[in-house]
Design brief:
The chain has a single domain, classed as Hypothetical protein (Archaeosine Trna-guanine Transglycosylase, Chain: A, domain 4), CATH 2.30.130.30. The termini are close together. The radius of gyration is 14 Å and the shape is globular. It is built from four helices and six strands, in the order βαββαβααββ.
Length: 121
């Protein structure tokens, strides 16, 4: 199954259904269900901002469905979706918003992450 690594707290925000757009600097043709992997690297400042502590890392934490990709062409459009992606700063000119649905938490499963989408059995 396709898998995507996200730093914490972004992985937690996705599996809890609060983050419905994942911003990347690259596009993908993939659509469908994928596993959400919490990478070993975290953003401690953002964890504090969202009042999280001791979030799991280095493991599968859930799954979601990628239904579409939105290409952001303006700072205004990007900022309009800030309550869905929580990203700070305009990522021009290569901002792509992966639109997510059906996020669910799964039992934790230790796994080493990789870049981009990667396959996991």
């Amino acid at each position: 199954m396709k898998t995507l690594s996200l730093k914490q707290p972004w992985a937690e925000l996705v599996v809890s259904g609060r983050k419905t757009i994942e911003v990347r600097k690259w596009n993908t043709k993939f659509r469908g269900e994928f596993l959400v992997h919490a990478s070993l690297n975290t953003n401690k400042e953002k964890e504090k901002e969202f009042s999280f502590k001791d979030l799991p890392t280095g493991c599968i934490v859930g799954k979601a469905t990628l239904i579409d990709v939105k290409k952001y062409t303006s700072k205004e459009e990007f900022e309009k979706d800030s309550d869905k992606h929580f990203a700070k700063g305009w990522h021009a000119p290569k901002a792509h918003g992966f639109i997510l649905e059906n996020a669910q938490r799964l039992p934790l499963k230790t796994l080493k992450g990789k870049l981009n989408f990667f396959e996991v059995e």
